[in-house]
Design a protein that fits this description.
Elements lengths: L6 E5 L8 E5 L6 H16 L11 E8 L5 E8 L3 E10 L8 E14 L3 E15 L9 E18 L2 E14 L3 E17 L1
Antiparallel strand pairs: 1-2, 3-4, 3-10, 4-5, 5-6, 6-7, 7-8, 8-9, 9-10
Length: about 200
């Protein structure tokens, strides 16, 4: 029977790995898969390049976390050659005098951009206020200032949705004294841009 694919359906008794396992006996692709691939190629060929990665005048909202681990709700303004933004975080778990405030700003100049990504050099500045009780003063608070020079990679999953990752130095001053060379390679930020 030419033109008809015969498939074998295996159901695992113990459901060890997969409940359904489809295998084509003839070694050819199923006709439906061929049609889907052809339609996908036609749609991709007919579509143009997305206007993303540094679209001038776009405003992004989402969330972003700095290398120090602090962050929160975020707003970015993309000017094309650079983007600037800030974040505000607030956390108040149960208990007295344990509220945490995070406030920060960032700037990245795009040294390289494509239609769906950009690579920026710059950094961020953040101020955090966290509980820092000691036995002598149980109501004490610590204020940390973090200066974080580095680079940021933004990848646009769609023309207006970006995921970012940061790598750089995290320099803590005031109550957060110290230096870390670190990076966020998974995530860092997620923004939805309005054109």
């Amino acid at each position: 029977m030419s033109g008809i694919e015969i498939m074998k359906l295996e159901l695992g008794r113990d459901h060890g790995s997969s409940l359904l396992d489809y295998r084509f006996l003839s070694g050819e692709h199923a006709p439906m898969l061929k049609n889907t691939m052809l339609a996908s190629l036609l749609i991709m060929g007919a579509s143009g390049v997305a206007a993303a990665g540094g679209s001038p005048g776009s405003l992004g909202v989402g969330a972003e976390f700095q290398l120090s681990g602090f962050g929160g709700a975020s707003v970015n303004y993309d000017a094309g050659d650079f983007h600037v933004g800030g974040f505000l975080g607030f956390h108040d778990p149960e208990g007295d005098d344990n509220t945490e405030f995070d406030l920060g700003a960032r700037f990245y100049y795009h040294v390289h951009s494509t239609a769906m990504s950009d690579f920026g050099v710059g950094g961020s500045f953040s101020v955090v206020n966290v509980p820092g009780p000691t036995p002598a003063d149980p109501e004490a608070r610590d204020t940390g200032v973090f200066i974080e020079p580095g680079v940021q990679l933004r990848v646009f999953l769609a023309s207006n949705v970006a995921v970012s990752a940061n790598v750089g130095l995290s320099i803590g001053v005031v109550d957060a004294s110290g230096v870390d060379v670190t990076g966020q390679t998974i995530g860092g930020g997620l923004h939805y841009y309005f054109f």
